[in-house]
Every structure is written in structure tokens, then in C-alpha cells.
Design goal:
Keywords: Coiled coil, Signal. Pfam families: PigL_N. This protein is mostly helical and 438 residues long. The protein has 3 domains: 196 residues, no CATH class; 95 residues; 110 residues, no CATH class. The protein has 13 helices and 2 strands. Strands 1-2 form a two-stranded parallel sheet. The longest helix has 38 residues. The chain is globular and about 100 Å long.
Length: 438
């Protein structure tokens, strides 16, 4: 069994600790040789958790510079939870007597008031959160398909909902413990009720801040108009620039407010736990209360990790899937530094594809160059024609392009303009219906 570890240890040590505890718990459960479905499901969950932790260990060993300190508390809690549940299982088995293979007390196995299925759901939350953080790092360093990104987005949303449900369950358990067995006239009972109301009020304020912050992230200002207006009149003078600046200030203010509320929530919880310990009647209940506090903090940290990953998905990643046929020109470029994930796919007689990271000026120049190149290659060679000074030259392609109507371009594609003299000569030199006859 792994030795206890604290947050002061390094991230690699915490990850290794959690991995070892999950493997140890898996081997202990495996030794019971039970074929009950709930045991099989837990073994599968432990196996998946160990695989995710093993990948995280390898990533940290290969990239010592990465910063995922937000995982410290979830990793510590994951390891401690596996360790504590293994102790509960062994104690329950020893009390029942007999060999491990004949153990039938799975229904009586409880941890923090939950049965095996509840414990499995708890581990699933750790696994999903760690997997999200791991995937977020991997996406910043490598490519992925649009299908992979859609699955990642669904994983984030599902995990957030599960964690919110977990927090509600913890709140319910805390509410049942707080003020337990204290007389209504007891001064501690009155203070406990006040602290509980304050905690719920702070929780509501945090929800309001989160909703407002999410709403601000969804506000979109036309980036082209913003770029054009800021380039001509300055960031602080255009309506879009003023709005963008105001939104950024609002986000910063919300972040400061949220940090203050989080700190206040921690202080309230500490005071609640200190008062509630007077209401519990056994050492085990006191430990459960501390575990609830730790699990409450961990669930909130996991939820924060998911929210940041979701924000990165929405604001830092562009998913592009280009499909073209025939005469296709495809652009898959990023001019604002956003991460690109996607593909250019085209079939046909001529396709041109551009991909990568470049400035707006480079994109515009590249577009002009491609149009000029296409027009020069589309110009047919007419033999035996006299050169005319009015004939459009390659340098006049921009003028020709502007004079084309949209209907002509859509029906016939790019063309070029003939002078009236050249047209007459072509008509005159063309053989008539009777030419070549005797």
C-alpha cells in the first residue's frame, strides 16, 4: 500500500501516488474473485483510472516544464480515496471471517455513506477530470480530428454535469450533519444555522458570477469590423473597441470577485466544520465530516478544471473541415493565433489549398497572387492575331476582374476582354460555311 502523501509533494510524486493506490485497490478487489456486476464494473473503472494516471505520469516525465498544478488536489484526493476504501474493504472482510473468495458483504460496504456504485461514480469523476486536463495539454501539442474534438467537448459537458450533481450530494450530506443533535437553544446551533445560510448565499453569488462570465464569453464582436475600425481610429475610440475594452474590464472584475467569494467560502466551511464536530458522536463520523470537506473542495477544483478546458475549447481552437470539387480554392489559416484543427479535402481537375498561420496582410496578398496567376493561365492563345495596344495586359487583370459581372463569372468562369479591332479580325479570318468549296 502506498504511503500517505501531501500537497507539498511534487506533481510527479502525487500522480505516482494516485496511480499506485489505484493499482493496489484494483489488485485487492481482484483477489476476492467476485463475479457480481457491481464488482466487475468497479474493476473496469479502476483499470481505466490507472490507464489515465499512467499516461499522466509518462507525460510529466517527458515534459517536466508543463504546468498542471490545478490537478494537485484531485490527484491527492484520488489517491487517498483509493487508499481509504481499500482499508474499509479489508476491515469489512476481516469482520465477516472466512476466505476472500467467499466474501458476500458487498452490499454492506460503505464509504462516506455511499455503496460500491457511489464509490465507482466518485472515481469516474476523478478519471474524467484528469483525462480532460491530459487531453487539453495534448491538443496544444499535436493535431486531432474534428471527431476527436467533438468527443472531447462532450466529455467536458458530461463531466461538468456529473460534478455539479456530486456537489449537490455533498451539500445534502453536510446539511444533514451540521447542527446534528444540538438543542435549538444551544448558541452553537444558532451560529451553525447562520453559517449554513451564509454558505448557501455565497454559493449562489458564485453561480451568478459564473453565469455572467459565461455570458460574456459568448458575446461575439465582428472581428473584421473590429480590426478595420481599430486600425483606422484606434482601439479606444471605435464603438467596437470601447465595447471590447469594457468587456475585458468586466471579466477582470468578475475574476477578482470570484476569487474573494471562493476565499470567503473556504473560511465559512472551516468554521462550519469546527462547530459541527461538536455534534458528531464518534471518531468515524468526525473523519467522514473531514472527508466531505475534502471532497467538496476537490469537486469544486475539478469543476474549475473543466470550465477552463471548456473556455480554451471555445476561444482558442478553430475547427475547419473544407470540402471542394472541381476548380476549388481552399483556405485553412489562422490570423489571430487560434489553434487550428481540421482538413482541406478536394477532388477535381484543379484544386489549390492554403493552410497555416499567417497575418491578414499575407492572406490578402496570397489571394491576389492566386487570382492573378489563374487569370494569366486562363487567357487563351489566339494564333495569327495582330497585337493591339488596347489589348489587356497581365497588369490589367484587376480591371478585367472588376468589369466581370457576377452572373458571367458564375456561368463561364474567369475570362478576358477582347478589343473591337481584334474581334473584327477574328471574325474576318474565320472560315465561312462555303469556304474550301470549289
Amino acid at each position: 500500500m502506498a504511503e500517505p502523501i501531501g500537497l507539498a509533494s511534487g506533481l510527479l510524486a502525487l500522480t505516482t501516488f494516485a496511480f499506485q493506490c489505484s493499482v493496489s485497490l484494483y489488485e485487492t478487489f481482484k483477489s476476492f474473485q467476485s463475479r457480481q456486476k457491481r464488482v466487475r464494473d468497479l474493476l473496469e473503472e479502476l483499470e481505466a483510472l490507472s490507464a489515465v494516471l499512467s499516461s499522466l505520469v509518462a507525460l510529466i516525465q517527458e515534459n517536466s516544464h508543463i504546468n498542471i498544478s490545478s490537478l494537485e488536489l484531485p490527484l491527492l484526493r484520488c489517491g487517498n480515496t483509493c487508499q481509504e476504501f481499500e482499508e474499509v474493504l479489508l476491515q469489512c472482510s476481516s469482520r465477516s471471517g472466512g476466505s476472500r473468495t467467499s466474501f458476500r458483504g458487498w452490499a454492506n460496504l460503505k464509504y462516506m455513506g455511499d455503496d460500491i456504485d457511489g464509490f465507482r461514480n466518485l472515481l469516474a469523476g476523478y478519471k474524467a477530470t484528469i483525462n480532460i486536463a491530459l487531453t487539453d495539454i495534448t491538443l496544444r501539442q499535436s493535431s486531432a480530428t474534428a471527431e476527436d474534438l467533438r468527443e472531447y467537448k462532450e466529455l467536458i459537458q458530461d463531466t461538468k454535469e456529473d460534478l455539479e450533481a456530486r456537489l449537490e450530494s455533498i451539500d445534502s450530506k453536510l446539511a444533514s450533519v451540521i447542527g446534528k443533535e444540538l438543542a435549538p437553544s444551544d448558541p452553537d446551533a444558532t451560529e451553525l444555522r447562520s453559517l449554513q445560510v451564509e454558505r448557501l448565499s455565497t454559493e449562489k453569488c458564485l453561480q451568478i458570477c459564473a453565469q455572467l462570465s459565461d455570458h460574456i464569453r459568448h458575446i461575439r464582436i465582428d472581428s473584421d469590423r473590429l480590426s478595420a475600425s481599430t486600425a483606422s481610429s484606434g482601439v479606444g475610440t471605435s464603438p467596437e473597441g470601447v465595447t471590447s475594452q469594457g468587456l475585458e474590464e468586466c471579466k477582470s472584475s468578475l475574476a477578482v470577485t470570484t476569487a474573494k467569494l471562493e476565499k470567503h467560502m473556504q473560511e465559512v466551511m472551516e468554521r462550519l466544520l469546527a462547530k459541527s464536530k461538536k455534534a458528531v458522536s464518534s471518531e468515524e463520523e468526525s473523519r467522514d465530516l473531514e472527508r466531505l470537506r475534502d471532497e467538496w473542495e476537490t469537486a469544486r477544483q475539478c469543476l474549475s478544471i473543466c470550465s477552463k478546458a471548456d473556455d480554451h475549447w471555445k476561444t482558442k481552437v478553430s475547427v475547419i473541415e473544407n470540402h471542394g470539387s472541381g476548380d476549388a480554392l481552399q483556405f485553412m489559416v489562422s490570423a489571430n493565433g487560434k489553434v487550428l484543427h481540421g482538413k482541406n479535402r478536394a477532388t477535381g481537375w484543379r484544386t489549390r489549398q492554403v493552410g497555416g498561420y499567417m497575418s491578414d496582410e499575407s492572406i490578402q496578398q496570397l489571394s491576389r497572387d492566386i487570382v492573378t496567376f489563374n487569370l494569366s493561365h486562363l487567357r487563351p492563345e489566339v494564333p495569327n492575331l495582330k497585337k493591339n495596344a488596347d489589348e489587356p495586359s497581365p497588369s490589367q487583370d484587376d480591371t478585367v476582374e472588376r468589369e466581370m459581372t457576377a452572373e458571367f463569372r458564375q456561368r463561364y468562369g474567369h475570362g478576358f476582354k477582347l478589343s473591337s479591332e481584334t474581334s473584327s479580325e477574328v471574325t474576318a479570318s474565320s472560315p465561312g460555311p462555303d469556304s474550301g468549296r470549289a
